Amino acid sequence: MKKFIKEVLPYIVIIIIVLLIKKFLFSPIRVIGPSMNHTLLDGDIMILDKISYRFNDIERFDIVVIKTNKTKIIKRVIGLPGDKIEYKDNKLCINGEYVKEDFLDKNTKTYDFTLYDLTGYETIPEGYYFVMGDNREESSDSRIIGLVSKKNIEGHAKYTIFPFRRFGSKK
């Protein structure tokens, strides 16, 4: 019995450590659907960093994983707390200044709206974020689901690990 415990104990410890890492630090996440095309594709597998936002602020244009009622979705942070968001003539305007979105496909179309039209807020309240998919015509994002609470943001999805031809950091 003692020999059995000595042989099995290291494996049990390893399993516990892996489960703790997956629960609290990092875990794989699969992209489902076309809402982040062309940056991320349906089926891409990424590493979800669950810990960095405990020590660092969420930044504009971060790709985040959001816990919704039924599932997890991957979107890009467009608006931060205190921001006034507007799209006009297919251009992003934040706090009265146009901001370039280099990550978008050149054919991406974003229809005009203001934050107020969508949410009833002039500016994004503290603790909330405005998120959008990169494929604006096929994305259920803050234009539909509303502002996202920080408590529903599970982490930062920055690295694609599969397929290997798409391996690397995404911004």
Structural topology:
Elements: H1 2-24, E1 26-30, E2 45-49, H2 52-55, E3 63-67, E4 72-79, E5 85-88, E6 91-94, E7 97-99, E8 113-114, H3 115-119, E9 128-132, H4 142-145, E10 148-149, E11 153-162, E12 168-169
Antiparallel strand pairs: 1-2, 2-11, 3-4, 3-11, 4-9, 5-6, 5-8, 6-7, 9-10, 11-12
Describe this structure in words.
This protein has helices at 2-24, 52-55, 115-119, 142-145, and strands spanning 26-30, 45-49, 63-67, 72-79, 85-88, 91-94, 97-99, 113-114, 128-132, 148-149, 153-162, 168-169. The mean pLDDT is 92. The chain is an alpha+beta fold and 171 residues long. Strand 5 (85-88) and strand 6 form a beta hairpin. The longest helix is centred in the first third of the chain and has 23 residues, at 2-24. The chain is built from 4 helices and 12 strands, in the order αββαββββββαβαβββ.
Summarize the structure.
With 171 residues, the chain is of the alpha+beta class. It is built from four helices and twelve strands; from the N terminus they run αββαββββββαβαβββ. Strands 1, 2, 3, 4, 9, 10, 11 and 12 form an eight-stranded antiparallel β-sheet that branches. It has a four-stranded antiparallel β-sheet with strand order 7-6-5-8.
